[in-house]
Amino acid sequence: MGITAQTANVTSVMLEQVNQKLGYLLAQKQSNFANLFNKQAEKHNVSAFSDGATGGSPTYSVGGPVLAWRVPALLYIGGDYQAFSLDGGDLGTGSMMGTAFMAFGTFENNLGFNLPMRAIMATKDRKQAIVNALSFSLGKGISEMAIYNEIGLFNDSTGTLAQANGTGSPVISSGQVTYNLEATFATNRIRGQNMLVDIYSTANVLQFAGARVASINYASNTITLKGVSTYTPVNTDQIMFPNMGLGAAAGAYTAAAGSWRNGIYTFNSTTSSGSLGGLSYATAYELVTPSVNGQNGFYTPSLGYAGKSQLIQRRDEEAYTDVIGVCHTAQRVSAYLQGITISNWLRGKADKMIDIAPGGNDYGDTFPFCDVTHHVSRYAGKARVDWLNPSNFGWCQLAEVDFIQTPEGEKIFIGHSATTGNPQAGFQFYLQNTRQLYSVDSGCGVVFYSLAVPAGQ
Predict the structure, then answer these.
(1) Dihedral pair phi/psi, residue 180, rounded to 5°
(2) What average pLDDT does the chain have?
(3) Looking at the domain 28-43+100-155+261-341+358-457, which fold is it?
(4) Strand-strand pairing, 275-276 and 279-280
(5) Exposed, middle or buried by CB within 10 Å (0-12, 13-18, 19+), for 55?
(6) For every residue of 8-51, which 3-state class applies, written as one string?
(7) Whether residue 352 has pLDDT greater than 80
(8) Phi, psi (deg, nearest 5) at residue 160
(9) Residue 29 pLDDT more than 90?
(10) Is 246 helix (H, G, I), strand (E, B) or coil?
(11) What tens digit of pLDDT does each residue of 238-251 get?
(12) Separation CA 179–CA 223 (nearest Å)
């Protein structure tokens, strides 16, 4: 007589086994480049003088910038050079140095955590869970803020995280919507699942506030957002940092330069019109960053030499000192593929096969190109490379990045009901960041743009 399937009769007395190591499905720390940049960029604690600006920071008044941090710039040294006659000739009037200034305020953003009491109590010790939810969240707060800080480094102050590519017909279904993303921007500035984002039109008008990332499909280059309703998705919509309109309703806020914190791309830019920090490019054209159009080709030495030549002509050979490069890993692949293509392996019959791919391709590894040390960041634009001098950049801030806390030092707060005001069974804590990025010389860099992205990157 055969054995019958009856194991289910005793599952009620079985114990569940749990892997004691928590798997991480997203990045845990900022890149080596972000560490280097933040160490070399000076930090300055400033006041809230910016609040005197018409409409508040970063708006400019008629008389010029009303912001807390002023960055003076030398436009010209002065002195009139001319011919004259030693036989009683007129020596001329002469001239003196000319200066101008840029001005920057601070930019306030925070990172908030919300833990119900049940989650805290149910994960308090190792007999209950492999991770203490409260301790874990407190311990990861600073590093998580650092990652968002790096994401913000690679933006132009408009707050764009990702863009739909104009294909497909996105519709809302069960509170979710899926977009096809623009390939060279891809999803490399999306932190990961459950990230809070807002949705804007191609004209930068707020369409929906408070969506969250449900999933990212890297194979199809699509992103699905959840918690959406009451708007009509368009295949050219943009995904941006949340709450730039400070609670504005859909249709009532338009994002623009200055809506988000300044990033490297605010200064390393192909823009040659308008102003930077309130200083017009027309007044100080040297603020315009030298740029090289890659014309959808690979990042080749000829482009690098062109960038170096432009930079030296713009300033002098000292402008090239301490310049480093930063790019997405895709452009490191582009550089390596060229090196592999021109390499020769002189081998004999007895030689065994070698690894023809060069080393130095770990995430933290740098690579040399045109005598410039290049760093990589997953959040950099895929189709560009930037040269810059980190010591030309700085941060103005109200205070260091820290937990929001009471004068008595309390940093964990009990929640309160939005309807009754009564205390809730749970706790909240927040980290604040008031840093605003500035540059003393945005023209002392190079932008290589419209570069080809190698297949699979």
Answers:
(1) -85, 130
(2) 88
(3) phage-related protein like fold (3.90.1690)
(4) antiparallel
(5) exposed
(6) HHHHHHCCCCCCCCCCCCCCCCCCHHHHHHHHHCEEEECCCHHH
(7) no
(8) -75, 130
(9) no
(10) coil
(11) 999 999 999 999 99
(12) 5
Q: What is the pLDDT of residues 369-383, one digit of tens each?
A: 999 999 999 999 999
Q: Which two tokens stand for residue 113?
A: 């955590």
User: Rounded distance, CA 130 to CA 442, Å?
Assistant: 48
- Backbone φ and ψ for 250, nearest 5 degrees, come out as -55, 135
Nearest to 255, CA basis, from 235, 279, 239? 239
Of 114, 160, 159, the C-alpha closest to 134 is 114
Q: How far are the Cα atoms of 63, 204, 353, 355 from residue 350, in angstroms, in the given order?
A: 78, 64, 10, 16
Tell me how far apart the alpha carbons of residues 207 and 293 are, in angstroms, rounded to a whole number: 34
Q: Does domain 159-255 have CATH number 1.10.155?
A: no
Two structure tokens written together for 172 = 């809302």
Q: How confident is the model at residue 60 (pLDDT cuts 50, 70, 90)?
A: very low
CA angle 194, 195, 200 (to 5 degrees): 120
pLDDT greater than 50 at residue 63: no
**pLDDT average, residue stretch 266-278:** 91
| pLDDT tens digits along 407-437 | 999 999 999 998 999 999 999 999 999 999 9
Q: Select from 217, 202, 305, 212 the least CA-distant residue to 254.
A: 202
Kindly give the interhelix angle for 133-153 and 32-40, rounded to the nearest 10 degrees.
70
Look at residue 100 in the predicted model and tell me its pLDDT.
87
Residue range 176-185, pLDDT digits in tens? 999 999 877 7
Question: E strands along 181-311, which residues?
Answer: 196-200, 206-217, 222-226, 238-240, 275-276, 279-280, 291-297
Integer Cα distance of 441 and 439 in angstroms: 5
Q: Do the strands 367-369 and 402-403 form a parallel or antiparallel pair, or are they unpaired? A: unpaired
Reported confidence tier of residue 64, pLDDT bands at 50, 70, 90: very low
| Domain range annotation of the chain | 28-43+100-155+261-341+358-457, 159-255
For 145, 372, 385, the CA distances from 324, given in Å and listed in that order, are: 25, 6, 10
Backbone angles phi, psi at 216, to 5 degrees: -130, 130
DSSP readout, 130-183? SS-HHHHHHHHHHHHHHHHHHHHHTS-SS-EEEEB-S-S----BTTEEEEEBPT
> Is residue 428 helix, strand or coil?
strand
Q: Residue range 357-374: average pLDDT? A: 87
Share of the chain above pLDDT 70, in %: 91
